[in-house]
Amino acid sequence: MPRGVKEPVGRLRFVQRALGVLNLFLVVPFGLLALLGRWLPPAICVPCTLAAFALPWLLVLPTLFVGVWGWRRSWRGVLLNLLALAVHWPWPLALLQLHPPKEAGAHSISVMSVNLNEFVYARRPEVTALITFLKGHPADVLCMQEYYELGITDSLPYAAYLARELGYPYHSVTETSKGVGFVTFSKYPILDSWRVASPSGVYGAQALELAVPNDTVRIYNVQLPSYHGPGVAPPSGNTWAARVEQNMRTLQTTWAQHDAHTEALLRDRARTTRPILMCGDLNQQPYGYVYRTLRANLQDSFLAAGWGWGSTHGWGLTALRIDYIMCDARFTVQGYEVIDNPLSDHRAVRAEVSF
Length: 355
Hints:
Elements: H1 3-37, H2 46-53, H3 55-58, H4 60-72, H5 75-87, E1 96-98, E2 108-119, H6 124-135, E3 141-148, E4 152-153, E5 156-157, H7 158-166, E6 170-177, E7 180-186, E8 190-196, E9 204-212, E10 215-223, H8 240-270, E11 276-281, H9 289-294, E12 298-300, H10 301-305, E13 307-309, E14 323-328, E15 332-339, E16 348-354
Parallel strand pairs: 2-3, 10-11
Antiparallel strand pairs: 1-13, 2-16, 3-7, 4-5, 6-7, 8-9, 9-10, 11-14, 12-14, 15-16
């Protein structure tokens, strides 16, 4: 064979081998880390939790390699990457559901969760916009996170003012840190409320007991710490290495708080036999340890009755599903929707559940 023909073939083989090595060393380690991230607490293995959090982006790699090896007719390469995708199945269903709408049950409760992103109520026009938004999406129980109780309006604290304007006869405010906290509005009597959290952590959860028709329901209004909230050290250093080190420390600090709050929530849940509804901002995607642990014995309303994309924060490649409504098996999820919220960087979520 002429010399000029051998060179391209040799180069092609070299490129194919290089791709094989790259495929092996990218897909296998990251896939394994993401798998371990489902089972290891965040404080124990930060890289595992990070890989689980980034799972949708990581699985772009084996998807692309399936195409590459299929084009090259390298069936071993195709099989390896299909196996990597199969191990994490059904991860796409955590973001996309196509459940048809259902009719509301005879004893149904509508629940809505809204992260206000530290919405400042001191500016009256924004309060008016918030009330207009909430009136457009009525719910029997409205849970808000990152709520500030600031000032007096019409001789009322802001929570009481909102309750009056929205037509809720009952509400409860739980402050957690620096004035920020939770507020829950309800059409049903609130029998009791308390904070559930790690003693050393910020945020956590507001727990309530509501007297609904023929039963008493336990509600958890949850906010796990964000990645720039209280308790997270400010950035230091300008070099690339310093920024990476700081970001890893931030993740470790934040996820340690997630882990501690998760344990506190599980202990509190174990002390009740009431039907449980849990909603709020977990600041975790549905692939890791925190989500898997908190969802134990609960239904994810989006998986049970969602329609379309379930992302609640960000858009496009940065879209995340970090806001949830969950309930135990004594409820039937009749409907679920994600609602655009122009007043926050989080979209609101709303579910209809029945006994």
